[in-house]
């Protein structure tokens, strides 16, 4: 049918071209026998075009109806397939549901929840810190840390200070050691090679 429709449509387009040509010829001719002859040809061509146009309309209408029927048939087949699949699914669900009990499923869920809770408690116990007591005050720990940092800073600062700014005990120890060394050297030079015993103040014993 599609091939027949294409042939008719081609003929109608051909008649349209002929009618356009006849119209141009009549527009250039004066009224008379020649113009009437062209006019008669144009009328016959228009009549043939109308006939083919009517056939084309009928064929297109038939084709449309066939497509509608085919679409409806395909839809019915799809519906049958869908209903059949739904029935099979229903049977499978009924078969499985017989093996399941809502109470058993609920009980199983509660048992799993209890097991998970026990596992969390075990993990929490295993993760406890045994090195420090939980009673230790964090504020006290921070104070000790600051004290250690201050002592370290003071020790570094004392080494960098000039002699006259250091602690008096440190200066005194340094002066005593220097005096002792000088006395020992002096006594050594006086006695030659003999080495004299000295007391804690650097004097001859």
Quick structural summary:
The protein is mainly alpha-helical and 205 residues long.
Please write the string of helix (H) and strand (E) elements: HHHHH
Give the rounded overall mean pLDDT.
76
Using only CA atoms, what is the Rg?
61 Å
Strand element count = 0
- Strand residues, percent: under 5%
Distance between the termini: 144 Å
Helix content: over 70%
Shape: elongated
Could you list the spans in which at least 5 consecutive residues all have pLDDT below 50?
186-195
Main sheet record: none
Please state the structural category.
mainly alpha
Count of individual domains = 2
Continuous helix count: 5
Please supply descriptive tags for the structure shown above.
205 residues; 80% helix; 0% strand; elongated
Description:
- The protein is an all-alpha fold and 205 residues long.
- The chain has two domains: 2-87; 145-205, no CATH class.
- The protein is 80% helix and 0% strand.
- The chain has helices at residues 2-28, 33-99, 102-126, 138-160, 168-190.
- The longest helix has 67 residues, at 33-99.
- It is elongated and about 165 Å long.
- The N and C termini lie far apart (144 Å).
């Amino acid at each position: 049918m599609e091939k027949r429709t294409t042939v008719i449509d081609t003929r109608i387009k051909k008649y349209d071209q002929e009618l356009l040509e006849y119209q141009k010829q009549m527009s250039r001719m004066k009224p008379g026998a020649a113009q009437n002859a062209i006019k008669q040809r144009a009328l016959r061509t228009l009549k043939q075009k109308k006939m083919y146009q009517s056939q084309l309309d009928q064929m297109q209408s038939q084709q449309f109806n066939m497509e509608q029927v085919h679409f409806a048939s395909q839809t019915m087949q799809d519906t049958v397939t869908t209903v059949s699949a739904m029935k099979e699914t229903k049977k499978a669900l009924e078969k499985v549901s017989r093996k399941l009990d809502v109470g058993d499923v609920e009980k199983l869920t509660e048992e799993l929840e209890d097991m998970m809770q026990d596992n969390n408690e075990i993990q929490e116990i295993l993760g406890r810190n045994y090195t420090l007591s939980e009673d230790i005050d964090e504020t006290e720990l921070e104070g000790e840390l600051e004290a250690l940092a201050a002592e370290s800073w003071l020790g570094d600062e004392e080494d960098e200070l000039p002699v006259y700014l250091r602690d008096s005990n440190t200066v005194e120890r340094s002066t005593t050691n220097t005096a002792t060394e000088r006395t020992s050297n002096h006594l050594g030079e006086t006695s030659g090679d003999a080495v004299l015993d000295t007391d804690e103040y650097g004097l001859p014993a």
